[in-house]
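It is worth pausing here to work through a concrete case rather than discussing structure prediction in the abstract. The textbook approach is simple: state the sequence, then state the predicted structure, then interpret. We follow exactly that order.
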Amino acid sequence: MSGIDQQFIEALWCKKITISLTEFSDKLSLYYLDNGTGFDLSSIQYGAGLRNIRERIEIFNGYLSINSDVNGTEVEVEIPLKDG
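Step two, the predicted structure:
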């Protein structure tokens, strides 16, 4: 997780983290969920780490969703798979 920003790392004060990586026939899906304190998405400053993650996902026409509140943080990434 070397590309994650400091704000994101600080939001990880949690007791439980769930991470799954699943390959479907048409996409690769990464799911992250924690029960930490979360952070305010409207005030987050996208530093180089998070910006690089977004740019790399966009290169592959992928999808990125980040949701965070006082109950924790959820990140979903989907990257379409090309045939052959």
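Step three, interpretation. The longest strand covers residues 72-80. The CA atoms of residues 19 and 32 lie 5 Å apart.
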